[in-house]
Amino acid sequence: MKVTVTVNGTEHARDVEPRLLLIHFLRDELGLTGSHWGCDTSNCGACVVWLDDTPIKSCTVLAVMADGRRLTTVEGLARGTELDPVQQGFAACHGLQCGFCTPGMMLTARWLLNRNPDPSEAEVREAISGQICRCTGYENIVRSVLWAAKHTGEADHANP
Amino acid sequence: MQVPAHVDYERAASVEHAVALLVRYGPEARILAGGHSLIPMMKLRLAQPDILIDINRLTELRYLRITGAELCIGALARHADLLESVEAGQHFAILHDAERVIADPVVRNWGTIGGSLCQADPSEDLSAAFAALKGTMVVRGPDGTRTVSAREFHTGAYQTVVGPAELLTEIRVPIRRGSSARRPGTGRRGTGSSGTGGPGTGSSGTGSAYLKVARRAGDWPVGAAGAVIWLEDGIIADAGIGLTALGAPHFTAVAAEDYLLGKPPSEEHLTTAGALAAGQCRPVTDQRGPADYKLHLAGELTTRVLRLAVARAGQAARPPTARPAA
Q1: Quick check: B217 contacting A, CB < 8 Å?
Q2: Which of A45, A76, A107 is the last residue of a domain?
Q3: Could you tell me the CATH number of the domain that includes residue A22?
Q4: Which chain A residues contact residue B53 at CB under 8 A?
Q5: How confident is the model at residue B68, as a pLDDT?
């Protein structure tokens, strides 16, 4: 079945089986391996990407369901060579250790900050509550997101 | 690696088209909404439909609106839609209480209300909330639309009244007097009590709440209880109780509801109602906890959630002019 999606502003068309999961479509068909395939049970959030303007867990969505829609992955977060403030925050605050959860964490963080530019620490924790960091580096992840909130206005990253 | 088995796929262009596809493909076709219950079941091969009928493009099924005296929720409304609806939260705090503890924010972005209800997991939260609210389900099939009480919707674990050629299209919840604006002195009065001495004496209003005990954030409940209380002049004019994961028939506890009718919401009555609710539950021991603990939860959570619903009913009843701010 033919699927046409716009990923990070670029249109892609592929012929896929209906049972193909979106995470595998992104990684194996399009070669976008920034999104990680983790628990396979919609628990860990390593596979979070945006479907249109909303983060979803791409291990629990079929690629055919995304036909005709826009997708944003971690590869689309930066503007050219300028990192999104969320990415800068993760660098500045040591928001990653092994890095496996990082793409999903950053996409959810950007979505949170677009809706709520000045979140409390509790709101950040709530937003990422469906995502697991197996290094248990949550303190620094939360600090990174709060850093990004503080610095987002400067870079004017309304939408990646 | 978990991968669904081979499956065909059709995209419905309208509700009528979805029904036509269900008729054409027969009982091995399944409606695909958010897929956050169905796709995991397919990965585990617990579900192996021949064909999926994707209804995600049916924007006419994604809505929340107040129509007359009802809150109407389209079956394709996402959990996040319900949680973000200020109006739904004002009328029914129970729905926001429940949604806050269903999975996590990202799952709630895509999982649907109708999908959760049709999955019919015996531990599902909204099944208890809508049972407490005495809601109605609207089901569409080739012969038209029919309505079913929320309490009659589930016929067993993972089973509903929705037939092979039907789909759930809407959930309706009655908005009763006093649920947002106070209308003192209207309606019937409670019977069988003098109406004095209760904590809500003299007040009228509706309050609701939901409480869940889970092993960790976002998990399925070990046990959960929801309550809706309609107070008139300090007397319980109507009560709705919903229970999930606790083996309560039809996700409710009718004996406890009946007991409360016409009584003031005193601590003693709420405690007795909790015991009556537990008496109706037949929980099973599983990985989430032993049956005796779940029975304890059934009673304790019912009493606590009733207490909270009564407190909120009291707040809803308080007219702003009658008690000026201190």
Answers
A1: yes
A2: A76
A3: 3.10.20.30
A4: none
A5: 86
